[in-house]
Design a protein that fits this description.
Layout: H1 21-33, E1 39-41, E2 46-48, E3 52-55, H2 57-64, H3 68-80, E4 84-89, E5 94-99, E6 120-123, E7 129-133, H4 139-148, H5 155-165, H6 171-181, H7 185-188, H8 195-200, E8 207-208, E9 220-221
Length: 223
């Protein structure tokens, strides 16, 4: 349990957890107690998933150096704030605590302290895997292009297309093309393709046709 790390966001400073010293203490203890990887406990015939640990009020009281009643109150508060889930097994003398959105407190870091680029596993509230995310390269460039593009639908699909084709040499041509194309009558009258289609179809290579009476390009089409 001495290995591993947790990640805290500065927005914790503005949270209800931070406003109470005991709540903050118990919350950080919960995060530090949670397993960072799957772990089997043979004598209990149980497999703990990342973000889970076995909880007993008396042992928690000793570790936290707090009265059992105080520990109970703070754990109840974490439950009410929907930060954790708890399954009680009174016949076995322990409870299973699961940290909700566990992945948000984790960031894959190698032994040398550098981000490893490993896939990040996201768990739903029942701790089953729902998606696998990889670090998005050039996310800043995507956000700039996304904000500039006139039709903002299907962002997830657009990001997927972006990751598949993007390299740094495409950024300026893409941005320039968007700024020009969104002024065309075609785009201004609602006939812009979804951004994912625009990316996959290499629509940043489209050429503009003759200008209309207002001086704006009428349409653009592929080369």
């Amino acid at each position: 349990m001495s290995k591993g790390h947790i990640k805290l966001h500065r927005k914790l400073l503005d949270s209800e957890v931070f406003s109470n010293a005991n709540t903050l203490k118990v919350w950080i203890w919960v995060l530090l107690k949670s397993n960072h990887a799957q772990k089997s406990i043979p004598n209990l015939n149980i497999k703990l998933k990342p973000g889970q640990f076995l909880y007993g009020r008396n042992s928690a009281s000793q570790e936290l150096q707090m009265a059992p009643s105080s520990v109970r109150n703070q754990v109840s508060k974490l439950l009410s704030l929907q930060l954790i889930l708890m399954d009680s097994f009174k016949d076995k003398g322990y409870s299973l605590v699961t940290v909700r959105k566990w992945a948000t407190y984790q960031d894959e870091i190698a032994e040398d302290g550098q981000k490893s680029g490993h896939k990040q596993v996201i768990y739903n509230n029942n701790t089953s895997i729902v998606s696998v995310q990889e670090p998005v390269q050039h996310l800043k460039e995507f956000e700039i292009l996304w904000m500039e593009y006139p039709k903002k639908v299907a962002r997830k699909e657009a990001l997927k297309a972006f990751k598949q084709v993007f390299n740094p040499s495409l950024f300026k041509p893409m941005l320039h093309a968007i700024k020009i194309q969104k002024k065309t009558k075609q785009y201004q009258t609602g006939f812009a393709p979804n951004f994912s289609t625009w990316i996959r179809g290499e629509r940043y290579l489209d050429v503009l046709e003759e200008k209309g009476t207002n001086g704006l390009p009428l349409v653009c089409h592929g080369i």
